[in-house]
Amino acid sequence: MRKGLSPFNIVSLVMGFSFLYLPILLLVLFSFNESKLVTVWGGFSTKWYGEMIRNEGLMDAAWMTLKIAVVSSTFATILGTIAGLVMVRFGSFRGRLLFSGMIYAPLVMPEVITGLSLLLMFVAISLDRGFLTITIAHITFSMCYVAVVVQSRMVTFDQSIEEAALDLGCPPMRTFFTVTLPIIMPAVVSGWLLSFTLSLDDLVIASFTSGPGSTTLPMKIYSSVRLGVTPEINAISTILVGLVTVGVLVASYVSRRQTLIRQRDERLAAAEAT
């Protein structure tokens, strides 16, 4: 038997993946439960998805969460990409240590501290809490993840490609959008999906920065679960799992396609050189 495929390793992998994914599978299964009791199987039914759609409070929270996630992840991707480029391309500059520390701080900062500090800032500037404050908060903590992903890709970036474009008369801005950005696009897409998922999942920071009429889906689910889990919660949670799964598959497809295209171009260049 080859190394790494011993019975102990196989059992360990099965137990580990079961611990991670079995609760999710049970959640999906019981979202199709006929019974009102979420722990008692009463037959297959999709009625709770209909009940979920008719639940205005739940749908408003879901729509609010999606809007916040799309807007915050888009701005976080733009800012995080710029930050990643700065940390790689500008080398050592005055204030780099402070700049890097400010980028990486939200990665290790407890969410309670981040949420409380943002709340105090919004109160100090008299900004009403709602959609805008939650979006700013999500941009604040998610852009650092994008910066890390883009920075790791830029470290291995071949700058000679950009230099060739510049030597041929391509302006710097056009070089970035036509040469650099397409090459690092898998990292940018991965950063967007990561920040989108983090925004969908956030509960603590949104609780500090939300106001009346701006309840997010995690907050709605948490407040509902305290009174008892209902099949409607299972249904909306299953849809969220499906959205995240589709996002991961799309990101994997884009990354794989970019890799295949790059390998093909390298083979063509090697063939032309010989």
Automatic annotation (TrEMBL):
Belongs to the binding-protein-dependent transport system permease family. CysTW subfamily. It comes from the Bacteria. PROSITE patterns: ABC_TM1. GO terms for cellular component: plasma membrane. It is a multi-pass membrane protein. Keywords: Cell membrane, Membrane, Transmembrane, Transmembrane helix, Transport. One of its GO terms (biological process) is transmembrane transport. Pfam families: BPD_transp_1. Residues 62-251 form the ABC transmembrane type-1 domain. The chain crosses the membrane at residues 12-32, 68-90, 102-125, 131-150, 176-194, 233-254. It is found in: Cell membrane. Its main location: membrane. This is ABC-type spermidine/putrescine transport system permease subunit II. It comes from Aestuariispira insulae.
